[in-house]
Amino acid sequence: MTRATRVRIPVRKRLLVRLLSASVLIAVCSVAATAWLAVATTTRALREEQGQALADDMDILARLSGYAATHPDWAGVQRMVRDLSARTGRRIALTGADRTLLADSAPHGTSLPPRAAAAVDPLRTDTYTERGAQLSGTDPRVVGPYRLTDLERRKLDAVAHARQRCFSRYGVETTITRTPSGRPVLTDADGGATTGYVPEECADGQLDTPTSTEQKALNALQAHAGPCLVREGLEPDIPLYFGPGIPGVNGRDATPAPAYVKVRDAKTGRAAQSCLEEARRAQLDPYVAPVAELFLGGGDSGAAPRWDMSPANKTKVFGAAGLVLAVTVAVSAVVAARLVRPLRALTEAAQQPPDRHARVPVTTRDETGILAEAFNDLAERRERLEAQRKALVSDVAHELRSPLTNIRGWLEVTRDGLVEPDAELLGALHEEALVLQRVIDDLRDLAAADAGALLLRREPVPADELLAQVAAAHRVAADGAGVSLRTGTDGALWLDADPVRLRQALGNLVTNAVRHTPPHGTVTLTARGEGAQVVLAVADTGTGIAEADLPHVFERFWRAEKSRSRRTGGSGLGLSIVRQLTTAHGGTAEVASTPGAGSVFTLRLPAAPPPADA
């Protein structure tokens, strides 16, 4: 390489300088951003911590309310209190209305906070329907006598699935959700109850009809509310039902409510609603834990303090920033030097003349080492491809030279009058022209396959008929060579393939097998299923192929015996065409051989289902 070909890189554009500059810039930005974030977010972090503590308090209240809604007492709540305390870092204590301790996450004897944070009463506080809020009402997880039996759940599930399919037929997509009592409810895409539009076919009323368990509870509720309803001037036997406007039909709870009749005024209606609510609380009271007081500790704090940077802190920050910059520059310089060294070697090797196929030493196992290995592999492949190109040009020239020389020679002697152009001479010239045409056609097929332009006219192809057609086409040649040609198929197998191209591939394999099988030998075509593939095999009892030659059998113009001519050994393109046609069909071509015992060529192709009219 001359000096004129060397390129001098300006200092500002060198990789080492650019890497150092980028590292310093990153370090400066990192230090500045860290200092700014530390000052700007400290107060916000403290405030967010207080907000998180408030959210944790609401979650604690909701979890304990849920426990009270599903248990008749507080006997087993200690474990939940400890788990909640470990997760939130808060001290949690529960006491009865008389301050009798029910559960406490703090050690025994620890005094309680001065006042309770909230009262846990699922009959008068709903912390479940809307997280983060304490709604006035009954926690929907309190189901008490309304809990369905297993048999009732299964029956309602079947009804819910039937209604869901009915809605789907009318283009209404629904989801089945389960309420705390076990009742399935259909909800629309927005999570609301599917009561806005009910097709007539789907309105059978079965899903909304109370079960025997629910009806029994509703009757008891009606008995509880009767005296109060009488005092308000209403009939005590107003029927109760699960209506579309009742909270909980959207899946959050299954609260029963009265089917209100016309009342004299809104005041009377509100009084009737109040009677039913009080009766329901009285009905559910035996199923919930007694009212408890919730005490929380460790979460109280005053106003969030503001963190100000003192001169001493500023000195520490700037000192640490300077140290970070110095270390960054030193480390970057060492790393950049190690990175640039193999890159320079790669550059020098790449600038060598192409015919030298220079290699570079691999000294590391990092990205640059992998790049060096890839460069060496590329150089090796380029050298091998160059050798193959030269061999291909030589082989093509040789294959075309022989028939052209024969044709030219016979034409010249015929022109000079030395030989009469009789039928035998014309037949010989025609045979040479056919040989030339076969070589050109094979090269054209390979070129089309390499360019991805090989056209396949796919259709359902039965494997047994394919093998029978190939065997029939080569039966005469096999009989003439004294070779027995057999076929065998394992079951009814189908392929989605181009039958002409597959016959061409199998024909090349059969021709090759017959050529290399001595008289009284056998060539067998078989097809079998193997998972999602159809395996086509051509086996012979010929001379076989040496193990060292197996990797080369599918290469172009390759012959195991270099002395064989195109008349005795073919053009050397048949097996290459087999592999290309198999690959175009999405399959693979393989060969296995034992010298003196024969060879087996295997084509693995994707299987296809039989056609409907098969």
Low-confidence stretches: 1-6, 242-264, 299-307, 562-569
Total helical segments: 12
Principal-axes shape call: elongated
Beta fraction: 5-15%
For the record, give the distance between the C-alpha atoms at the N and C termini, rounded to a whole number: 70 Å
**N to C succession of SSEs:** HHEEEHEEHEEHEHHHEHEEHEEHHEE
Mean model confidence by pLDDT: 77
| Largest β-sheet summary | 5 strands, mixed
If you compute it from the alpha carbons, what radius of gyration comes out, rounded to the nearest whole angstrom? 45 Å
- Helix/strand-derived category reads alpha+beta
Overall number of domains: 4
* Quaternary: single chain
Number of beta strands: 15
Task: Please tell me about this protein's structure.
There is one protein chain. This protein is of the alpha+beta class and 614 residues long. It has 4 domains: 8-120 and 291-349, no CATH class; 144-287, no CATH class; 367-445, Signal transduction histidine kinase, dimerisation/phosphotransfer (DHp) domain (Helix Hairpins, Orthogonal Bundle), CATH 1.10.287; 456-606, 2-Layer Sandwich (Heat Shock Protein 90), CATH 3.30.565. It is built from 12 helices and 15 strands. It has helices at residues 15-70, 78-88, 150-169, 212-231, 266-284, 311-350, 367-415, 423-450, 463-480, 499-515, 566-569, 574-584, and strands at residues 91-95, 101-104, 118-120, 175-178, 184-187, 240-241, 257-258, 292-297, 459-462, 484-489, 494-497, 522-530, 533-540, 588-594, 598-606. The strands form 5 sheets. The chain has a 5-stranded mixed β-sheet. A hairpin with a 5-residue loop joins strand 4 (175-178) and strand 5 (184-187).
